[in-house]
Specification:
By secondary structure, this protein is α+β, with helices and mostly antiparallel strands. The protein contains twelve helices and eleven strands. A hairpin with a 2-residue loop joins strand 5 and strand 6. Helix 2 crosses helix 4, helix 3 runs antiparallel to helix 4 and helix 7 crosses helix 8. The protein is globular and about 60 Å long.
Length: 292
């Protein structure tokens, strides 16, 4: 990841956050990362391509995303957007804004949970965007610094209780766990992360947690909302995406090193899940990187 731009933000040690509002006709900033949290809002951006980790999506007219992990590369690029007045509001703040004791208070439980999920990038639904739009719309022009802070905190709270906020990057790409779960689920997920390159079967995983195969399959789906096979494929694809970005190994090598035993199946699964072939995915990241 040494050739991903590390942004030095304009956040001052004396400020709680830094906000910048811009109007532009195109996106030119390269793929980058930074240690600060970032809440990024795009208006009139239909067709813009958003890359967060191994998540690549074309956004609609409005987009609001929270980035939390220091090593999570991200970028917004022009894509098919034809708008002549793209509005972007970026708010950056450090983890130090909420010390440990503050996040442990009952009033901050939902914000704490949201910040944890933001390690993978968190995209908010239109319903949440509309709830905070009127405040976000005028936040940069608020002259009273304390009032500006209160409004920002209100935005974070409203977003933290929003339903259907989507995690973007896969956990295997971001190299971080996704949430607090039951010990059985965590044990299985850890096993999959440790053995993703090897054959993994339902019988072994069921035995690992002392359950029958049928009971475990139902248990896993009930707790995660996904089938076991779909989860394993996503983990393997996450590691494959990371290798495509960070290594010079060819697609065939990556396919087999990530647990796939058929190159055609690998290419098909990658295109289905990521929207691009492995080669196109690698080329897109290479285009957006800057040597530093």
């Amino acid at each position: 990841m040494s050739n991903v731009l590390t942004e030095i933000t304009r956040l001052s040690e004396k400020d709680c956050f830094h906000i910048a509002e811009r109007h532009k006709t195109e996106f030119t900033y390269p793929l980058h990362r930074h240690k600060e949290y970032e809440l990024n809002f795009i208006e009139h951006g239909a067709g813009v391509r958003r890359i967060v980790g191994d998540s690549v999506e074309e956004i609609g007219e409005y987009d609001l995303v929270l980035i939390g992990a220091e090593d999570l590369e991200h970028v917004w690029e022009q894509g098919s957007c034809k708008s002549k007045d793209i509005r972007e509001i970026t708010i950056q703040f450090s983890a130090g804004l909420f010390d440990g004791s503050l996040l442990s208070k009952n009033q901050f439980v939902s914000i704490k949970r949201m910040l944890s999920r933001a390690d993978h990038g968190l995209a908010f639904p239109m319903s949440a965007i509309m709830k905070v739009y009127s405040i976000l719309d005028t936040l940069a022009n608020e002259q009273r610094s304390f009032a500006q802070l209160l409004k920002f905190m209100y935005i974070l709270y409203e977003l933290s209780v929003a339903e259907e906020a989507r995690v973007l990057a896969s956990s295997s790409f971001a190299h971080t766990s996704r949430s607090t779960e039951s010990r059985r689920i965590l044990k299985v997920k850890q096993y999959i992360n440790d053995h993703y390159a090897e054959p993994i079967n339902l019988t072994d995983l069921s035995a690992l947690v002392g359950m029958s195969s049928v009971a475990f399959s139902r248990f896993f789906r009930a707790r995660t909302g996904r089938t076991l096979s779909d989860y394993i494929i996503d983990i393997r694809l996450g590691y494959a995406a990371r290798m495509l970005v960070d290594s010079s190994k060819n697609v065939s090598e990556i396919c087999y090193e990530c647990g796939f035993n058929n190159l055609s199946n690998f290419n098909r699964a990658f295109k289905t899940k990521r929207g691009y072939t492995p080669r196109d995915f690698r080329a897109m990241f290479k285009k957006n990187k800057v040597m530093v």
